[in-house]
Amino acid sequence: MQIYEVGGAVRDALLGLPVNDRDWVVVGATPEQMMAAGYLPVGKDFPVFLHPDTREEHALARTERKTARGYHGFAFQATPEVTLEEDLARRDLTINAIARAPDGRLIDPYHGQRDLRARVLRHVTEAFREDPVRILRLARLAARFHDFSIAPETLSLMRGMVADGEVDALVPERVWQELARGLMESRPSRMLEVLRACGAMARLLPEVDRLWGVGQAAGDDLGSRLLRRLDLSARLAAPLPVRFACLTLQAGPPRPMAERLRVPTECRDLAEVLAREQASIQDSASAGPAELVALLERCDALRKPQRFVDVLLVCECEARSLPGMQDAPYPQRPRLLAALEAARSVDTARIAARAQAAGVQGRGVGEWVHQARVDAVAARLGNGSS
Predict the structure, then answer these.
(1) Mean pLDDT for the chain overall
(2) Cβ of 321: how many Cβ atoms within 10 Å?
(3) Residue whose C-alpha is closest to residue 344's, from 288, 284, 293, 283
(4) What is the C-alpha separation between 323 and 343, in angstroms, rounded?
(5) Could you tell me which of 360, 385, 361, 365 has the C-alpha nearest to residue 375?
(6) Over the stretch 164-204, which tens digit does the pLDDT of each residue have?
(7) pLDDT tens digit sequence for 3-62
């Protein structure tokens, strides 16, 4: 039994980056031998085991053969006869096909170190075309390693996969998983550029793909603004719901895309609030207290203040995505946050008790509370009680 460290951990160590998760491949062993050594079996599709002490994943060296379209259309062979080089050959990119032996020696049959030095993302073998998820993974890695280029032959291979309909067989959950991870990288715009370059965006995100060429001149069309908006959200360390809303803004109603990709509810809800209220938020700089409170109530900001904070962050990213506005202030955000704080400071129970003591019932109590919030916002902003 021989055990090698493989994949992203080796790659990141060679790049001088922090290593969080480590993966291992085991050559020359059977499942029975692994369990006898105390490893816990967890793999469903092929033999994967957890180390008895570290709980790190150890997979038996394996080969795979395409049997049907899509992500699950594979037959695996994991026997003691499978070599390390055969296992590495089935990996997606050369930079992920480097193994480290226990003595520190690197096994690099597909020249991953060379591509690391050249900052190139290159497929290992033609087997890349058999798994459409690899298109998404490469696009995600491009968003992380945004100074890496894509080998022309790899991009050509990806285009062929799209043309052959491989991308159409991807299940929504897997698309969202990779898309969400890419959105959270340091340069999410790069993921979209790669998906668009190979044609996958038109299949997976047609609403987004149609933004290019819409609006202003090239470089300032809606697609270009989307790329700038997403990268600004990354620089501001925005959470995933904000980045998803940045993606869907201007791409039409967000619900169809959200339902198709089965995105989390918090992502969908924020995008819907944004789509409905973005124009009012952008125009709020001149709005009076009554208009501001009405806006807060429509956004359910009094009950869900953090979601409203996130909505404002998307609006700021959009405003600053305009040419020449990248470093411009966005006064709407502090003004609306101040209004929210003032409105939430109102003691609604006390106001309701006063209203009832005055004989006010039903909807009238809500009107008293609403007016108290308007007065509180007016006092905070010094705008009178319009």
Answers:
(1) 91
(2) 23
(3) 293
(4) 34
(5) 385
(6) 999 998 999 999 999 999 999 999 999 999 999 999 999 99
(7) 999 999 999 999 999 998 899 999 999 989 999 999 999 866 678 999 999 889 999 998
Q: Diameter of the chain by CA atoms?
A: 87
Q: CA–CA distance from 155 to each of 94, 134, 175, 201, 383 (Å)?
A: 14, 12, 19, 14, 57
The CA distance from 362 to 384, in Å, is 28
The values of phi and psi at residue 80, to 5°, are: -60, -15
Indicate whether 316 pLDDT > 80: yes
How confident is the model at residue 384, as a pLDDT? 45
The CATH number assigned to the domain with range 1-118 reads 3.30.460.10
Which residues face 93 on adjacent strands? 123
Structure tokens at 83: 């070599």
210-220 residue pLDDT tens: 999 887 665 67
**Residues flagged as binding site for Mg(2+):** 21, 23
Q: Can you give the residue ranges of every domain in the chain?
A: 1-118
- Looking at per-residue pLDDT, the higher value among 161 and 382 belongs to 161
* Residue numbering of the annotated binding site for ATP: 8, 11, 91, 137, 140
In this structure, what token pair is assigned to residue 221?
């069309």
List binding-site positions: 8, 11, 21, 23, 91, 137, 140
Annotated binding site for CTP: 8, 11, 91, 137, 140
